[in-house]
Amino acid sequence: MTINPKTIKMSFNKLKLLCFALLLTFWSGALAQSQRVTGVISDTSGETLPGVTIQIKGTSSGTITDIDGKYSIVVDQGQELIFSFIGFESISVSVNAQTDISLSLENNVSELDEIVVVGYGTSTRKDITGAVSRIKGDDFQQRTVGSVQESLAGIIPGVSVSSNGGAPGSGANILVRGISTISTNNSPIYVVDGTPLDDIEFLNPRDIESVQVLKDASAASIYGSRGSNGVIIITTKTGKTNKTSVNVSAKYGLQSVARRPETANATEYAQIRNRAAEFEGRTQPYDNPEALGEGTDWWNELTQVAPITDIMISASKGSEDLRIASSLSYFSQDGIVKGGDYKRLAFRVNADYDLSKWFNLGMSLNVTNSSNTNGPDLAWDLQRLEPVTPIYLPDFERGDRNEFSIFSPTITDVPNAMGVLKRNFSTTDHMRIVGNVKANIQIAESLSLNLTYGFYNSTWENNDFSPTYNIEPNDFSDLNTVSRNHNNRYRHVSNNILTYDKTFGNHKIKVMGGITFETESHHTLSGFGNNLPSNHPDLRYLNAAVQGYLAGGTDENWGLLSYLGRVNYSFKEKYFITSNFRADGSSKFPTENQWAFFPSLSAGWLISEEPFIKDNISWIEFLKIRGAWGQIGNQNIPLDARQSNLDNVYYVTGPDQSVRVGVAPGSIGNDQLIWETIEDINVGVDMSLFRGKIDLSFDAYQRNIKDMLLTKPLPAYLGLGFDEQWANVGTMETKGFEFQVSYKNVVNRDLSYRVGFTGTNSRSTMTQLNGQDDVYWEGNDQRLNLLGYTTEGGTPSEFYGWVTDGIFQNQSEIANYTDNSGNQIQPLAEPGDFKFKDLNGDGVVDDQDRKVIGNPEAMLTWGVNFNVNYKSFTLSGLFTGKIGGDILTPIKAYTHSGAGGYNSYEGLINDSWNGDGSTNSQPRIVDNDRNQNFRYSDYYVQDGSYVRLKNIQIGYQLPKGLLKKARLTTASIFVNAENLLTLTGYDGMDPDIGGYATLRGVDWGNYPLPRIVSTGINVSF
Amino acid sequence: MRNSVLILLTILFTGCSSDLLDEPVLGVQTIDNYYSNATEAEYAVVGAYASLSPEDWWEMDFFWLIGDVCSDDAFKGNTIVGDQLDFGNMADFNINPNNEWLDVKWRYSYITISRVNLIIENVSPSEMDEDRAKQFIAEAKFLRAFTYFELVKNFGGVPLALEQLSPNEAQLERATEEQVWNQIIEDLESASTDLPSRADQPANYIGRATQQAAWAYLAKANLFAENWAKAQEYAEMVVQSGQYDLEPDFGDVWSLTNPNGVESVFEIQHNYDDVFYVGNALPAVTRSRSDGGWGFATPSSNLAVFMAGDARLAHTIITQGDSIDADHPSYDTNLAENESGRNNRKYYLSVADRSPLDEHVTNGLNHILMRYADLLLIHAEAAYRNSQEGSAQSSLNRVRARVGLAAITPSGEDLLTAVRGERRKELALEGHRYYDLKRWGILEEAITDFVDYNLNRSSDQYDSGDQSGELFDASKHYLFPIPQTEVDLSQGRIQQNPSY
Predict the structure, then answer these.
(1) Lowest mean pLDDT segment, chosen from A227-236, A298-307, A515-524, B142-151
(2) Is B458 part of any domain?
(3) Contact B30/A655, CB-based, under 8 Å?
(4) Residue A894 distance to chain B (closest CA, Å)
(5) Could you tell me if residue B341 is inside a domain?
(6) What is the pLDDT of residues A952-982, one digit of tens each?
(7) What's the confidence (pLDDT) of residue A171?
């Protein structure tokens, strides 16, 4: 056979083809089976996770994500990739044709192992036996507020937050479990990274990692004499091991008055004055009220839309043994009432270094500078100033008046508010340096020593200037004055704690013992001078004053020495017992009385670990009950409360009438003062159901406060004038409950949501107040006199006054209101006046006919927070509210009477009585009110229930594609509104009224609530 | 390494001492152990005098006007209802127990009482020069008596605090009026033995209490308490001391440049100082609103008519248009806001005499509480009551003679009327009228007549038709109510005055 080369070639080609085809089959089999998959793994907040293990199921191959969270792996189609990482839920994904598998892992640190800071140590949620609440910093980052206190509203059960006046920089008041002391200071103590402080204004809410609130005595007793109002433990953010991040957040918003008081205009004002004259038979002062028109809207002129800015840059980096976090923030808020503003610049750095396996050194430093322009308190005046008076004098009347004198004189004793604003020069600068150094030494395997030295150093300076001016004979000053007040405050805290922690089989025991020293030193200096050469800004300093020099200054020092200890014992991780003990010695009390002891005992049972639950009921993931008892104390009195100081006073004598110095008692001290002690019992339940979908916790408590410290007004015949004296005045009992319920659900990859509901109830009763019939009054108002009524058996600060019973419509009604003998009960009344009830039936309406007419305690203070995530959008917010709780509004004596020339609310002229049958609820307008219609009665009391949409925010996460181009890790923009809506029946400016134990629920109308709409961005690299 | 670190730290911390807990209050002295020597006692006594006029205008000074506005001599003053509304209510006899002026008067009176009680209790003649100690105690007793006089005049019986009480001991009830008068008289009698005579008073003490001042107040207190014989006796002791006389010129009685003059028995001392407020509020408070004043306590035409033709009228009342001094040839009493077109002349200071700064707390005009003319009229009244008409007429005529009025010799009821009338003219607008009308028992009559005059008989272009006084109620207004706060704080121990 002949071999044909062509044939061979063809055969070879065919072979090649065949091989190629075979190869191809194999290859595409491999292609059909294996492919390269890449992706980025992050957590639910968008931060990338390095070190995540990706394993091919059923094999031993795998890889891990790099520093940027990226990975790359070759895998066959149909195989499964398992993504896992410590502390996170593992996820399995089947590989199909996709080449990119990026996802986020969910945190799954068990509730039980969550670390809780408890004061001089830490614990876990599993071990806690007292009433402790914990929230993460993220839970309140979106509030548009300047202070940490304001940001805690409505999210912690047992904690209620109320406004502290509302002016920029004024912060808010926090009450933990209602009132725990009768005196004015109901604030809890704050512990920031181990240092007890009472001023946390230097902290930016965004620097906070977590907040723990020790609510009952068993938890707070470790703080002994300062724990009586609760303890709020704050830990600030630190760097994280092997992570680097840089964050920038910026927010800008506008504030406006949420609800302004509607005041009468000039026409109505004139009609009101005319009506008063008419009822009294005088000539009507205004011929043509209609022609006066609107007049001056004082409220409008002195309030404004004001900006608010909040910017923060933070950076943190961590390696294996060194972690650093730092931040710089700027906050600025102008007041919606003109004249006040607040700015704060804060810098913080936190570092943590493992010098060796057994020695860890940490330090933190905060430097914050805040400055405040202290605006005048105008809100009360703005509601009373008459609209018929223009703000400024017309040009031709100004003559050669200076810039502070060109304002119109006013009709009543309320000064021209614009004049008050323009001559208000008061600034406060406050610099704080707060920090600590700590060393943690692991002496032996179970024994560690923790030494902390914390310091707080503040410099506060207030500068005031008051110019010469002349508006009218009642409103002038011939004398310009200047003053400077300068205070330095130093606080040093040294904590030395030894902890022994060991597990022996089923028994786990932890013993902590320590000594702490605290000192505080307050240095004050003030200088006054007057008669500056002119009002020129460059001369507003003491050096320019020509006379009237007066200086003052002193030191105040205080020390506290304490011994403390704690024992935790648990058996089989199911049964827990804890006992705290603290002995405090305070320099504020006389030597015989300096020491006090505060023990506590609490126990818990983790029922969910019991076999009958664990094995049978799968939907209960965590169920614990706990009970606690403890004692804490209060030593919060001024340093000189126990002694009677002498002041200098002056009189002239002699032919030349020269000034002589004299002395007189300035205060009356009480050398019998003893510590206030609080004892309480708490029972609680915590549970987590359906794999963490539902979390519940409920606490009920009762606390007894003995030997309460209070300044009480005393009969004037003791010679105190208006001063009051500190005394131990009695016993109070506070009972209540609080709860928190939250529900979270992940519907699908795109949609998840979370709702939480917290509620607090607390009722206080004075169980004993000095003598049997003792009554304690507090608060003073020109028209209503004493306001808050505290008596044995009642709630502190009840409202106590007369009871109205409609209006006398005509003379015969007055004549018929008689007692059994036919004597008129209200002989001074005229038609249009209030009828008051003669409660004791003695035929006269006098002091004996008063009773409790209101109670400021709410039945429930609640908050609802919610968070909805849909794809890249987030909707979150907070509702807060109150059910029950009465409010007393003393300004109504001015704004609702039409008397005396003060302005009134809009509509008074039509609402008030003007003839038989016109109205039964608003008396006639008259200046000379012999019936005393506007005495302290139920007319001033209203229910203060409300629902408020405190905060709502819509955020949008920018898509990853865009981010990559800018090399950002996450970026979001948002729109936020604070105090957007309030639903309430209360007719005043804001039903969210605080106060202190003996004077609560009184609406002084001092500052309006701002409604803030803002927008901003959050970016991280 | 571990161990050495540990040892170092242990040493550091156990080395801390516990005088951590020993922190006295700095910068102040306390009552304990005070009053132990003459210097401290002296300071305390000055401190007690200082309480007669505390720093601010409203604390004590303003209340002196009440005696005039709650009578037919003066009105509240300015027509602005909202300006010092409570003061206006007092003037109109629309008086409630929570009127702030009663509260202030009560409180500040008891501040004086507590200061002097501390002195009386703690100053001991054995710790310092005996004579000085006795004098200090005497001055304290004088001030105590003076203050209780003020309290009983206004409120009737009041709690008698005679020693420093601690709050736990605060269980006083109201003493009866008689008990208060007795205490006043007892204190003054005790004080009078140890107070220096005016002639012997050291120069730098001028302005403080003298023996004759104690006698003068004894005369007055006994007169108010209707012990006529004693009243006359003490008045005569003052006269016989020869230390006092009437100012030849009535205009020199109230004068900035004549403090502690020959006619002055006891006055509150004031002066201008640029650091301390030791001034008198009344010159600024009563002056016309067109002249930098506040326009309160404006004199009535009823008084002006009563004083018509009397030389003292020009020194008592400024009427719209009057020529007062070089700066005020035609005085503007600010008619738009002046209830009666008139102002108080006695407290008036010319521009040159006014303090340049913060007038309402720094004017230097001393406030005369007791002067010789007052004492003479007390004597006249007491003598009349003791049926010594000749003696009464003599004192009466001395007062009249000073202003050029002829001597008169009325008898019986006429003499009483003459003395009362003379009292009104002589002491007008010095804070006496309400208390005099009250003790004579003719307050209701006078106020009713005042109202009738204003509404029906007055032809005055400024204040006729003024209704002030219509609300006068004889069943209550002979006494002011005890401040509501005080009643409330006493838990029933302090009973309110009738009908309030």
Answers:
(1) A227-236
(2) no
(3) no
(4) 10
(5) yes
(6) 999 999 887 888 887 888 899 999 999 999 9
(7) 83
For residue A652, give the H/E element and its range: strand A645-653
* Region B156-171 average pLDDT: 88
Segment holding B106, helix H or strand E: helix B100-122
In a domain, B382, yes or no: no
Rg (CA), chain B: 26
Stretch A194-214: mean pLDDT, rounded?
A: 90
Whole-number pLDDT of residue A12: 54
Question: A68: pLDDT confidence band, cut at 50, 70 and 90?
Answer: confident
Establish if A9 touches chain B: CB-CB under 8 angstroms.
no
Give chain A positions within 8 Å (CB) of B96. Answer: 932
Work out how many CB contacts closer than 8 A connect A with B. 281
pLDDT beyond 80 at A188: yes
Question: If we measure between CA atoms, which residue out of A494, A514, A520 comes closest to residue A437?
Answer: A494
Count the neighbouring beta carbons within 10 Å of the beta carbon of residue A959: 11
CA distance linking residue A292 with residue A269, whole number of Å: 9
| SS3 of residue A263 by DSSP | strand
Residue type for A799, please?
F
3-state SS, one letter per residue, for A384-446: CCCCCCCCECCHHHHCCCCCCCCECCCCCCCCCHHHHHHCCEEEEEEEEEEEEEEEEEECCCC
Inter-chain residue contact A643 with B485, CB threshold 8 Å: no
- Residue pair A579/A560 in contact (Cβ under 8 Å)? The answer is no
Q: What is the DSSP letter of B76?
A: -
Of A739, A742, A759, the residue nearest A698 (C-alpha):
A739
Query: Residues 6 or more apart from A469 whose CB is under 8 A from it?
Result: A402, A404, A405, A419, A423, A476, A477
Cα-Cα-Cα-Cα dihedral of A854, A855, A860, A863, to 10°?
A: 80
The confidence score (pLDDT) of residue B481 equals 95
A715–B486 C-beta distance less than 8 A: yes
> What is the C-alpha to C-alpha distance for residues B404 and B245, in angstroms, rounded to an integer?
16
For B336, the domain range is 282-348
Query: Per the structure, how many domains does chain B have?
Result: 1
- Would you say A678 and A631 are in contact if contact means Cβ atoms under 8 Å apart? yes
Partner B contacted by A722 (CB < 8 A)? yes
Inter-chain residue contact B159 with A358, CB threshold 8 Å = no
With contacts defined as CB-CB under 8 Å, which chain B residues touch A928?
Answer: 92, 94, 471
Q: What is the pLDDT of residues B446-466, one digit of tens each?
A: 999 999 999 999 999 998 888
Is residue B18 domain-resident?
no
Q: What is the pLDDT of residue B371?
A: 95
CA distance A412 to chain B (A): 5
Residue A773: per-residue pLDDT: 53
What span, in angstroms and rounded, lies between the C-alpha atoms of B54 and B278? 8
Most confident of A8-22, A385-399, A924-938, B10-24: A385-399
- What percentage of chain A reaches a pLDDT higher than 90? 51
Considering only CB atoms, which chain A residues are within 8 Å of B366?
657
Determine how many CB atoms are found less than 10 A away from the CB of residue B45.
30
CA distance A466 to A488: 24
A168 and A193 in contact (C-beta within 8 Å)?
Answer: no
Which residue in the set B30, B274, B278 is minimally distant from A547, CB to CB? B274
Q: Please give the ipTM for the structure prediction.
A: 0.91
pLDDT tens digits along B233-247: 999 999 999 999 999
Per-residue confidence (pLDDT) for residue B330, from 0 to 100: 93
Compute the C-alpha angle B160/B161/B162, nearest 5°. Answer: 105
CB B446 within 8 A of CB B411: no
Please check whether residue A799 is in contact with residue A829, taking contact to mean a CB–CB distance below 8 angstroms: no
Residue A721 and residue B111: Cβ atoms within 8 Å? yes
Contact A466, A458 (CB under 8 A): no
